[in-house]
Specification:
- This protein has about 200 residues and is an alpha+beta fold.
- The chain has a single domain (about 5-195), classed as Beta Polymerase, domain 2 (2-Layer Sandwich).
- The protein has 6 helices and 5 strands.
- The protein has helices spanning about 5-30, 45-55, 60-65, 85-90, 140-155, 165-195; strands at about 35-40, 70-75, 95-105, 115-125, 130-140.
- It has a 5-stranded mixed β-sheet with strand order 1-2-5-4-3.
- Helix 5 (about 140-155) runs antiparallel to helix 6 (about 165-195).
- It is flat and about 55 Å long.
- The N and C termini lie far apart (about 55 Å).
Length: about 200
């Protein structure tokens, strides 16, 4: 089977599994911690650029082994306090195998990037047997997603050169303000829940 087709099948399996996990959570707790989800399959050009940057030969074998985020899935939560709940939800999947995790919320990147990343293996069932395809799941808040979208735009404005220090400093400062905003929103949610009781 064509490699890109395998990624498409893996995306379908991943979307169905996460949809089921979210629906089970909502049914159990009568509350949805997920504001919305996004997903994509990385283009071949983008994947080969990544291989090139890492110094690998541009082959399908290297693509399969070295690019762990060909299949990308993002879960956006309303509140920071919901991120651990969503991580637990995914840990409870009987299909997905978590092979690594990075907590950029507790330990932000130097740029100020905040998010929780999981690399998972997604089973796809072929006539030749089961294959496991790697996928990246990012879990973040609305505020983090807003910052990351702007950071992505800024990165494209400086494709072949380092981002000026002044811009980097400002981005990092805004990221820390996003973190403060997320913490305040958690407090606000706690206040609202007190009144609902």
């Amino acid at each position: 089977m064509n490699l890109m087709l395998k990624y498409q099948v893996a995306m379908n399996v991943l979307c169905n599994d996460i949809d089921t996990l979210i629906n089970e959570y909502v049914n159990k707790y009568n509350y949805n911690p997920v504001n919305h989800t996004e997903h994509r399959i990385k283009t071949l050009k983008s994947a080969y650029d990544k291989l090139d940057r890492k110094g690998y030969e541009l082959t399908d074998a290297n693509l399969f082994e070295q690019v762990r985020d060909m299949v990308g899935y993002r879960i956006i939560c309303n509140f920071l306090s919901e991120v651990p709940d969503v991580v637990k939800m995914i840990e409870g999947s009987k299909q997905l195998r978590i092979i690594s995790r990075k907590d950029y919320i507790t330990h932000p990147k130097e740029t100020g990037y905040l998010s929780y990343h999981l690399i998972v293996e997604v089973p796809i069932y072929l006539s030749t047997g089961v294959e496991y395809i790697k996928a990246e799941i990012q879990i973040r808040t609305l505020a983090m997603n807003f910052w990351a979208a702007l950071d992505h735009k800024i990165q494209y404005k400086f494709p072949d050169e380092a981002i000026p220090q002044e811009v980097s400093d400002e981005l990092y400062d805004i990221s820390m303000k996003v973190r403060d905003l997320d913490n305040r929103m958690v407090l606000l949610n706690d206040i609202m829940n007190k009144y609902k009781k």
